[in-house]
Each structure stands twice: as C-alpha cells, then as structure tokens.
Amino acid sequence: MENRQSICLPHLTGEIVASARKTKLCAYAVALEGWRRGLTLKWHTIDYGKYSEMITFGVNPPGRLFSLSSKERTHYFFRTRGDKVSNEAVEIGADKDETKVWLAKAGVPVPQGEKFSENAADEEIITYSSTIEFPLVLKPTNGSLGNGVVTNIKDVHALKKALSYVRSELGYSEVILERYVPGEEYRVYVVEDKVIAAYNRLPANIVGDGIHTIEELIDMKNQQRKKNARLFSCLIDIDKEVLDFIQTSGYTLESIPNRGEKILLREKTNVSAGGDPIDVTDDLPDELKQIAVDAIKAIPGLHHGGVDIIVDVNKPIEKSAVVIELNPTAQIGGILFPMKGRARDIPAAIIDYYFPETKGITTRNSRVYFDFNTVLEPLSSRSAVEVEVSPAPIGKIYAKKYIVSGFVQRVSYHQWLKNQALDKHLNGFINKLSDGDIEVVVAGTNKKAVNGFKEVFSHDPKKAEVRKIKEEIWRSPVKVGFEISEGFNSSNLRSVESALKKMEKELRRVEKEKNRLQKETAKIKESRSWKYTLRLRKFGNLLKTLAK
Amino acid sequence: MMDKKFNWLQHLDDSIPSSAYGYKLCIYSIALEGWRRGLRLKFFNVFRKDRGTTKLTVRFSLSYNGKEHKFAVSRGDLVSKQAISICVDKDKTKEYLLKANVSVPEGKSFGSSSSNEEIVEYFKTLNYPVVLKPTDAGGGKGVITNITNIVELEEALNLVRTELQYKDVILEKYIQGEDHRIYVIGDNVIGVYKRIAANVIGDGEKNIDELIDIKNKERKKNPYLFGRLIKKDKEMDNFLKARGLTLKSVPKKGDRVFLREKGSLSAGGEPIDVTDKIPNHIKKTAIDAARAIPGLPQCAVDMIIDKESNIGVVNEVNSKPQISNHLYPVEGYARDIPKAIIDYYFPETIKESRKDCFYFDFDNFLPLLINGFVEEVVVPCVPKGEIVKKKLTVSGSLPAIGYKKWIKKAAHSLRLNGFVESPKTGKLIVVVAGEKESINKFKTKLQTQSPVELDKLNITEEEWGKTIKIGFEIINNSEKGNIDVYKNELKLLKRTNFKLKKSIKEIEKEKDSIRRSTSWRLTKPIRIAGDIFKVKK
C-alpha cells in the first residue's frame, strides 16, 4: 500500500493554505515566505499603479498581485514571478518559437523544427516535413495549456489531418512543426544557477492490491487526493476516456488488478485530469539539471522560472533531453504538495533571490499565517486597491488555549480581553461556545505573556465571574490578529442556521436544569423539617437583628 | 424645504456607511472630503501608548501629488507636538493664553507639593464661587464647579486630590455662563455650538412622554447621536417632579421643557449650532486663543460666555476635538469643518470638483484593521471624468445562479462602480456609475453577451439619483434578509439563555443558603430519620 499521508513542507501544510487555490496558492506560498521573514507584505489590485509596468494576466479575483518590502526596497510580484524578471523575458517565454530561437542560440538542445507564419501554405509545411524525421508535433506558437497541440504525427497523411484541425478548425494559423521527442516530461524549477525542484507528472493511475476493483481503487485514490491541498479539486473522473483507455489495456471497472500492478487510466498527464505530480529532484542527473539552468540563462532578464524538458531514457544522457517550453510564471502547487517524493521549498528559493539578506531567517518551524480570504475581501469588492497584512510575529511561537467557564458572556468582557491580548502583542481569538463558555487562544513570541494570560481572565475591572479555567497547549497554526468570533460565519446562511439550532438545543437544556433546580428548592422549602423550624428561624433572625 | 427638520450638509446624505456612525464619524467625514476631491486615501493602524497600556488605533492619511498629511481623528500633522503637549496641560495652556492677553478665569495652579491649606489660603483671596479642577485630566473628570465656601472647598480637595488622586490642581474663579465650543482653523471661526440638556418642545397636544418618543425617533436618524437616546429614568422623574411636572404633563405649544440638569450628550443632551449668534469680539478671542499657542493651526476653543454681559473667557483648548456635533446639530445649521480642514491642508485642491455622487466603503475593511489582520488599507481613488449614473432593470428568464457574478465581472472589467440586486426572481436591478463610454460598453455587453437567451432579455434604463458606494457589490436580498432574521433570533435566544443562567445561579444560592442555615443543619438527623421512615413505607 502506498503511503496515505499527504506530503507537504512542515511549515506549509494543507491547513495553512486552505483558502488559497490554484494560482492563488502559488502567490500565497511565496508571499507567506517573505512575510514570515519579516518583510512587509501588501496585496494589490491591478489598478494599483505599479502593475502597468509589469506583464500580468488573469488577475481577477485578486490574490495574485503582491509586493514585499524590506527597509531598503520593494519588489513586486505576479504569482511566482517577481519584478526582476524583465517584460522581454516574459514575452519570449509566451512565444514558443521565440523561446526556441533564444535557446538554440545559446546551445541549449531543442527539438528540430520550424515556425510557419499565417501566410505559409499547408503545402509549404508538408514539403518541410520531408527534411526532418517523423514522428512530428504540430503546435500553435501562442497556444497555452496544451490547446491545439497534436503529438506523435507518424506520416504525411496524419500531418495533413493535423494541419486542417489546428489551422482551419481551431484557427491557430501560426504554427510550429517539430520532431516529436518521445520520453518523459519533467518540469524543473530554476533560480539563477540552481535547480530547486524537478517533478514529472504521471497520468491518472492506480496501483492494485489484489483485493479491490479498479473502480474501488479509483475511489480510494480520490480520497487520498482530497487530502492534498493542490489536488483536492482535481479528482479522477471516471469518464468515457478512462473507460476506453482501460478497455484497450484489457480491463473493466470490475477488474481486480494484482498487488503492486500499476494501471494507467489516461494518456493526458495534466494534474487537473487526475495526473500525479511526482517529485524527482534527487533523481534528475546533473547533466539534465545543467540543461535547465542553461535554458534559464539563455533568456536575458529571466533569472528564475520553470523549464519543461523531455527526456528520452533510451538515449545516452548527454543526448537524451530537449527543452520544449519555459514558464516565467510557473505554477508550483504540484511540487509543494506532490503525491510522491518530498515537497520542495521553491518559495524560500525565490525570496532568497530577491531578499538575500533574509536568507538566514529560517521559517521551517513557522506556523503563523494570515487569513487569505479575509485579507483579500476589500480588494475583491474593490473597496480597496491595496491592503497591508499585519506584520508576522518573528521567532518561536508559544500558544495556549484557555476554556473559561462562569459568567463570561458579556460582550464588553470579550472586548476587554481582546485589548489585553493586543496590548501584550498576542494573536489569537475568542470563540463563544454554545454552552456559554468561551474558548480563548493566545499566541505570541513572549512566553511569559502567553502563560500569564491565565491570570488576566479574572482581572476584568467590571468583574466577570470566572469559575473555571481549563488550559491546554495550542499546536495548530496561528492566525495573525485577534478576533472575537461568533462561533459561526456570520455571512453564511447555513452557518448561522446551524448556530441557531445549537443555541435552541442549549436553551432547552438550560431550561430543564432550571426547572429541576426549582423543584428541588421548592421541595426543600416544603419539607416538613424546614416548615417546622420556621419559627425557630424567625427567632434566630430576630436575635441577629437585635445583636446589631 | 419645509419638511426637512435638520439643516445638515446635503452632500453627506446617503454617504455615511453604518460603521462610520458614532465616534468614527469624525474620521470618516474628513477622509471623505479629501477623497472626493481626488486625494489618495489610506487607513492604517498605530499602536498608541495610553497610560501604560498599548491601544490599537486606526488613523488615516491623505496625499496629493506626492504631498502627504497624516491625521489622528480631526487633528492633522501640521499641529506641532509642542502644541499638543500644551493643550493637554490646562495650566500651561493658561500660561500661554495669559501671555497673549486672552481672557481666562482668574486663578492659580498648585503642584503635588502644595498643601491643601495653601490652596485654602489662596481661596480666601478670590471672589466666590470658584472651580477646582485637575491640571491634566480630560473629559470633565474631577471638575468641581460652584464652590462657595471653605467647607465645600475642603470636601472638593479631598475628593479630587485624595480620592481621585489628581494631585496637580487648578483653583479658579467660577464664571457664570454657558459652555461653548468654537472651531478655529487658520484665522477663521468655522463653527460654534453649545450643548443644552435633554429637552422637548411642546405642541400643546402631546404629553412629555410622547414628545420624548418623537425626539428619540429623530435622534436615531442622527449619525452621531443615534445610539444615545433620552432615557426615561428615576432621575428624570425627580427632575420633573421638582418642577411640578410628570411624564403625563402636556407642555404648551412652543414651550421648551428641560428634562435633566446634565447637558452631556449621553444623557440626552443636544448640540445646538450658534455660529451666527456669537458676537465678533468673542470669535476674535477664540482666534487669539488658538494663535496664542505655537504650532496650532486648527483646534476647538472651549469658552464660557455670559449671555447678559456678552463676556467670554477661555477655559480650554483642544487640539483633537470631535467635529461631528458641528455636522449634525439638533438645531441651527451644519458647519462644514471637514471642508475647512482639507482646504487648509491642501489649498491646491480648493478648486477641484468634489465627486459628491460617490462615497467609499468602510464596513468592509474597518473590522480587518481593528482585528489586527491588516496594517494598512488604500482606498481606490475617486473616479475621474464626467460621471453618469444609471439604473438598469433586467428581466426575462434569467439564470438562477452565476448571473449576478457575471454582471459583477463585467462591471469590474469596465471599472464601473455600483451594485446588483434581485428583488425577485426573473428580475435584476443593476446600478452602475462611471464614464459615459464605459456605461455604454457595459450596456452592450449586457445585451449581447449575457448568458441568457437574447430574445427573452428585457432591459430598461433610468437615471440614478442617489449616491453610489465605490466598488461593485452583489446584494443578496433574500439570503441577507434571512441571515439578519436568524442573527436577531440568535441574539434573543442568547439573552434568554443568559437570564436563565442567572436565575439558576440565584436558585442555587438560595438552596445553598438554606443548606448552610443553622436550622437546616440542626434538623438533619430528623430528616434522615424521616427518609428512613419514608423508605420503609
């Protein structure tokens, strides 16, 4: 059985990135790293002046544009790409032919081929095909996400079909025809002259255990994916493509594969189609790493980014790889949360590059974070163009949870507690529990303040009556700021509804308790001995009064 | 307009978000004035030291062409640190005022080393009555007025110096008259108001009780006073009784009946604008007072003015006064202090056209600042150019999900501000404001690109007269309504729960006291015997 635990960096767990998805995840991971090192973090909308100078795309809703500043300088970022990457480099990266020209000039291996402008006739392209070796790939110069790419074209007939599909049907008239390099595709992330991470993608797959059917195994695999911060929204769908694919390999959904037998479910390797990102950083030979580094260097002003290479394992290493694409704005979610191997800290490498003076500050033990959606809210409604996140507490974090019982429900008491926490530079929250207790979490770098907060509860000037304080160590991540939470999300209908139901239940319980007590007291009062001693008590009271 | 009761600033109508109500109004109104002129507006947190503890405070800054001014509520950064420190010290203030020949009440200050006897000796040289007040306490704390003899003075000294621990005090002549607050900026008096105690004016028909209800209804519409209503309590009963009145009395038409002694706003007091009624020589005194303190271009001067003699003395100078009472007086006219402040700090923007049709959101990010989630928020600049405001009513077989989001996106891409709401299914109201060209593009987009069957789509258009909040909002009427209902219900339940728990506590106490009582304990053997007996039965 495969390891079911999801893989991540110790300081970048699924819980911490829970509100950041897809390309927002990339931005959040890099921003968080800089922020945790003490840099000032601001999130922007596209209307914020600086971004007219940077090439960006797909910036709405917000959460992809941010800046980090030290005392000396500010750097602006779009997702994983910072402002040291020149616009020229971004433009080169966006044009596959242009990329190839620059790579070839620098001696980086690229697949042999040629670009054809929209004026070129199909015949011209077919004539060219006789000068290179089949199989071939036909792709648009400026398509993205694999759109309009036809691979493994084995003969002229197939080429004609492909040309009509890509150029006429899809309308990509500017195309590249090049040799199809069979082999495995690797995505390598490079910062300057260092490979930080490499991963490849396996198509959607399952591994048999000799017990479960393919259908059950897919379901199990999806359960595992659901735990992965990058993959939880990219589950394996059992669609016609999958059914056809396993059928050609001689299986049905009911087949029970042998233990350890790996069965591929599709051709496509895209993570969104159920593909697995697999960390191969340690397995990538140095020769290939060097090719990736050379590729980044070949483009003036690129400095860091993703390099896609194809490796033909049947060839000797020095001739085995070609670079097919560069990504100045590469996605890194897959390598932060791979299905196999280790998570690689690309965000740290990027921040090291932009702010080398912060290299010494280790964030590997950090568990502070900021609530991404909350911080972005004013930007998404456009009531703000810039928000600066409150500074991260720097250093070891101490955190405690106190559950306080008694007469502690007053709003002004909660407000007072919050001020006490902010005064002591503590982060955390107050959560009103449905039974009337409050849960108070305080966290900060000052151990004494965190542990000493227990004493604070009963020092309220308006005298909240604290009956009991239960304390425990808080090990979960710590959100910056201090919030008095209703115990439910007050803008979500369902959340409010369920809080209401809970409260009604609690009320019934309390009412019962009151009735019980009332009955009990009444019983005492009516008990004969209490009645009989009435005179005695009156007499006693009289004596007491007289004594005064 | 005849039916308009209050003479407030028209450009603030429909422009104050709910979270700016109350004491945040000062910040909001000044920021709004600058922002509407096209200044860049930023809010940020500071951790302010205040009597040994740190307090998180929200401040703001405005900038224009690279020039930035920071504001702490109404006080801008052209007020010098020295001026601030003079103003918080009543003794020092007086020193500077005297030097500039500004009339102040005759008196003397005493440090902590002075004995009470010393103060009593000085008292004998003054004309009675006198006032005793701490040198550096704010908000009228520890101020004892109208002291007429030595016994009263000794009591006051005991209270202020011993009990309240204000060792440094000022003893000065008590001036009969009314307290006025005069707002000065540069060399001009912008507004003057006084506070009068809670009162009602008779109409010859309704009784005091009913008149108070009407007054409170009006008060709820006042963005500054809405939370501080006139309470009908014992104190009021006694006050009325002493004047031969009850809540059921019906005052004559036009008669003003005071309800309390105290004039504080929280006790139902009212700010009354009297700017036009104050004689020029008193205004000049206020300006002189402001000038007397170096580095104080803006402030509020507190003066006591004697109506009969028309003589005014300066009591105090505030460098950071709240200005909302000038904006929302209960009688008289609103005075545009925010405009005067921005004119002073950014004179180059006096001629800028003010985009009164927009206001900025506050509810959305204020909690983020207050909770310490974010440190700083920059508000989008007010839209430039000629602004057109349209209300589009879209009807047809509209998709239930996603359409409002699509509209928001479309508005977003054209930088239009406004909102979309659906009062009922099959109908949407879209309000957009922006440049004419963008509005036209938006309309075309709605007509041609909507994810709706085109022949079933019907769009009508009209002008929109009200203000518009910057940004674009989806208003979920039904859901929001439900949430509010549930939230209210929850609040009620919580209150009931709280009460129940309280009564449980009382019952427990009672039970406890019975158990602990001597007679209960003494009769324990009897009860046990009785129980045994019962069991046997």
Automatic annotation (TrEMBL), chain A:
GO terms for cellular component: cytoplasm. GO terms for biological process: SOS response. Signal peptide: none annotated. It comes from the Bacteria. GO terms for molecular function: ATP binding; metal ion binding; ribosomal S6-glutamic acid ligase activity. It holds the Pfam family RimK. SUPFAM superfamilies: Acylphosphatase/BLUF domain-like, Glutathione synthetase ATP-binding domain-like. Residues 100-355 form the ATP-grasp domain. The keyword Zinc does not apply. Residues 399-486 form the Acylphosphatase-like domain. Keywords: ATP-binding, Coiled coil, Ligase, Nucleotide-binding. Residues 493-527 form a coiled coil. Belongs to the acylphosphatase family. This is Acylphosphatase. It comes from Evansella caseinilytica.
TrEMBL record, chain B:
InterPro entries: Acylphosphatase-like_dom, Acylphosphatase-like_dom_sf, ATP-grasp, ATP_grasp_subdomain_1, CPAse_ATP-bd. The lineage of its organism: Bacteria, Bacillati, Bacillota, Bacilli, Bacillales. GO terms for biological process: SOS response. It holds the Pfam family Acylphosphatase. Residues 476-510 form a coiled coil. Residues 389-476 form the Acylphosphatase-like domain. GO terms for cellular component: cytoplasm. This is Acylphosphatase. Belongs to the acylphosphatase family. Gene3D superfamilies: 3.30.70.100, ATP-grasp fold, A domain, ATP-grasp fold, B domain. Residues 94-346 form the ATP-grasp domain. GO terms for molecular function: ATP binding; metal ion binding; ribosomal S6-glutamic acid ligase activity. Keywords: ATP-binding, Coiled coil, Ligase, Nucleotide-binding.
